[in-house]
Amino acid sequence: MNCGEEFQDYLPLMIEKLGEDGLMQELAKGFDLLADPRSQTITFQSLKSNGPMIGLPQMTDCELHRMISEGDSYGRGELDLHDFCVLMVRTSPVLMRMAKVMLHWPEDETNLTNIYYNM
Q1: If you average pLDDT over residues 3-8, what whole number do you get?
Q2: Are 81 and 32 in contact (CB under 8 A)?
C-alpha cells in the first residue's frame, strides 16, 4: 500500500525539552487521547475519530490502516501503549540515526545533543 504519508519529526525536540521520562509521559497522554476507551487500544476507528479532534491532519483510510499495521506487533489490528511508543520512535528518522550512532560509538564519547545538531 503506497499512501504517500509525510510526518513532521518532533520527537527529538521533545526529548531535548522534556527528557526521556517526560517524552514517555507525553506519549502516554497522546495514546490516551487516541485510544478507544473500551479496549484501551488505538484502533482504526478510534484513530479516525479522535485524531482530528487533537489536531492531527486529515488522513485517508489507507494512511490510517497503514499506521495501525506498521505498529501492530501482535497482528490484532490495534495498538497498545507499547506498540504506540515503539511506532513513534521508529517513525522518527533523527532518533533512528541517533540510535545507530550510539550502537557504534564508545559510551564515553556519545553526546546525543551534538549528534542531533550535527545531522
Answers
A1: 54
A2: no
78 three-state secondary structure: strand
Q: Which string of DSSP letters, residue by residue, matches 20-46?
A: HHHHHHHHHHHHHHHSBTTTTBEEHHH
Alpha-helical (H) ranges within the chain are 11-34, 44-50, 61-71, 81-90, 93-104, 112-117
C-alpha cell at 30: 497522546
Alpha carbon distance 68, 42 (integer Å): 8
Please report the beta strands in 1-119, taking only residues with DSSP state E, as ranges in sequence order.
Answer: 42-43, 78-79
Task: Cell numbers for 72, please give them.
Answer: 501492530
Which is it for the CA torsion 56, 60, 65, 67, positive or negative?
Answer: negative
pLDDT tens string 85-105: 988 888 777 777 766 666 665
Least Cα distance to 88 among 39, 21, 23 occurs for 23
